[in-house]
Write a structure and sequence with these properties.
Layout: E1 2-3, E2 11-12, E3 17-18, E4 23-30, E5 35-36, E6 41-51, E7 56-57, E8 62-64, E9 71-73, E10 78-79, E11 84-86, E12 89-90, E13 95-96, E14 101-102, E15 107-108, E16 113-114, E17 119-120, E18 125-126, E19 130-134, E20 137-142, H1 145-168, H2 192-197
Parallel strand pairs: 1-4, 2-4, 3-5, 4-6, 5-7, 6-8, 6-9, 7-10, 8-11, 10-13, 11-14, 12-15, 13-16, 14-17, 15-18, 16-19
Antiparallel strand pairs: 19-20
Organism: Aquimarina litoralis
Pfam families: Hexapep
Protein name: Phenylacetic acid degradation protein PaaY
Amino acid sequence: MIYSFKGYIPVVHPSSFVHPLAAVTGNVIIGKNCYIGPGAAIRGDWGEIVLEDGVNVQENCTVHMFPGKSIVLKESAHVGHGAVIHGANLGRNCLIGMNTVIMDDAEIGDECIVGAMSFVKAKTIFPKRSLIVGNPAKIIKEVSDEMIHWKTKGTQLYQQLPADCFESLQEVEPLTEIPKDRPTQEAFYKTLEEFKENR
């Protein structure tokens, strides 16, 4: 669901995957190897939205802005399920937790991690490598090398997902029973705690 608005047509690199149930409108530029999940709305009607290479905007996220503003989600920014980015800029390789809300003119620095369900007030600026949680969101500590390594590995899964979707995603009728030879999916990623234990 890609829509022009007042003469602006979204630009999507061919390597990026926009799910058919997502909506991308107007002045939106999507770089290489980006993933836009079903239910996501990226609305470039009142300003420009730029997603640099390797960004993912997961299911049911909203990206929008106050009129006249333009925003950038920098390379490898990772926006978790249900998050709202309203007129905020996201730094390179940051992680925005599920159901987080980030308001107008906020700045999330490179390699920050924002915890799930946090609320970042308008005009709040967080320096790089901040671990941010709460309502209103506050820095609780610095993001460690171990944490950012774990985050980067998770984002790489989403950077591979567009190619996987182009190769294998298709609309089908559901089965009526479980086949006997249904394969088991491998566990190819670990929680942060499991990741720490295995290092």
